[in-house]
């Protein structure tokens, strides 16, 4: 990775707008959930965007989080015995978390890019991904979610309806309201005003 100097002009404005999207209250809630989900062994980050980024940067905490949402026999991410220290290994660990999150059901548009976390380019995107993962875990309600269910919104679920063949046939006989009705309609009694007077 190339060393980056300070940003100027428009790129600095863009970066400051991205940084303003980061939510400190949401950070606290996400830290509480991760600790509840993974156990106290993951530790706690220093408060603030940078502390949160450093805590998640090597990908181990994220991998433990996504693994905790699966039953014991089927953990999707392999976690090394010692945390990776080489940059590409850390980025690879983050990429494994992202793939596992997508497999779990997180929509591709809610998944952050590896550099968003690793270089702290967009920590708000990291928060969005974790929120989406938490919402899915609460919605699935399969017993693997730990923590307060009110921390996340439940996602809308499909409500499939089944119709019998006779119900479908009855539906063909009904005239929808958009088609209108002609019962009782006639032009009797309609007047269009007075006829035009031609004066010569």
TrEMBL record:
Classification via PROSITE patterns: CALPONIN_1, CALPONIN_2, CH
Superkingdom of source: Eukaryota
Keyword line: Acetylation, Cytoplasm, Muscle protein
Keyword Aminoacyl-tRNA synthetase: no
Residue ranges of the region described as Disordered: 179-200
Protein location: Cytoplasm
Compositional bias per record (Polar residues), positions renumbered to this chain: 179-189
Keyword DNA-binding in annotation: no
Gene3D superfamilies referenced in this protein's UniProt entry, alphabetically: Calponin-like domain (1.10.418.10)
One Pfam family, short name: CH
Database matches in InterPro entries: Calponin-like, Calponin_repeat, CH_dom, CH_dom_sf, SM22_calponin
Any one cellular-component term (Gene Ontology): cytoplasm
Predominant localisation class: cytoplasm
Calponin-homology (CH) domain sequence ranges: 24-137
SUPFAM superfamilies reported for this sequence: Calponin-homology domain, CH-domain
PANTHER family: CALPONIN (PTHR47385), TRANSGELIN (PTHR47385:SF16)
Family recorded in the similarity comment: Belongs to the calponin family.
Protein name: Transgelin
Source lineage: Eukaryota, Metazoa, Chordata, Craniata, Vertebrata
């Amino acid at each position: 990775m190339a060393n980056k100097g300070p940003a100027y002009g428009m790129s600095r404005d863009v970066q400051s707008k991205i940084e303003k999207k980061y939510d400190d209250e949401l950070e606290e809630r996400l830290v509480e959930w991760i600790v509840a989900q993974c156990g106290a062994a993951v530790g706690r980050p220093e408060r603030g965007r940078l502390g949160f980024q450093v805590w998640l940067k090597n990908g181990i905490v994220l991998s433990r989080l996504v693994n905790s949402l699966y039953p014991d026999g089927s953990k999707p991410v392999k976690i090394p015995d010692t945390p990776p220290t080489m940059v590409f290994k850390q980025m690879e660990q983050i990429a494994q978390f992202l793939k596992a999150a997508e497999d779990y059901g997180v929509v591709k548009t809610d998944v952050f890019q590896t550099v968003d976390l690793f270089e702290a380019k967009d920590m708000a995107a990291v928060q969005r991904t974790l929120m989406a993962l938490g919402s899915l875990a609460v919605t699935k309600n399969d017993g693997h979610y730990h923590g307060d269910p009110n921390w996340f919104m439940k996602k809308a679920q499909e409500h499939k309806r089944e119709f019998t063949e006779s119900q479908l046939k009855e539906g063909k006989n009904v005239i929808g309201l958009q088609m209108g009705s002609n019962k009782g309609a006639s032009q009797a009694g309609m007047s269009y005003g007075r006829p035009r007077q031609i004066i010569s």
